Amino acid sequence: MKQILNIFRKDLRRYWRESAVSVALLVAYGWNDVKGWAGEGNVAAYGGIGGLISYQFLSGLVAALLPVAWAFLIVRVIQGEALVGDRQFWVTRPYEWKKLLAEKVLFVIVTINLPLLIEDFILLAKAGFPPTHYVIGLLWMQLLISLILILPIATLATVTASVVQMILAVLGIVLYMIGVAALVSVVPSSSFSGPADSVELTLLIATCGAVIIVAIRPAGDGPGTMADSGSCSGHRSDRSSYSI
Question: Which of 45, 128, 131, 228 could form a disulfide with 124 if both were Cys (CB 3.0 to 4.6 A apart)?
Answer without folding.
Answer: 131
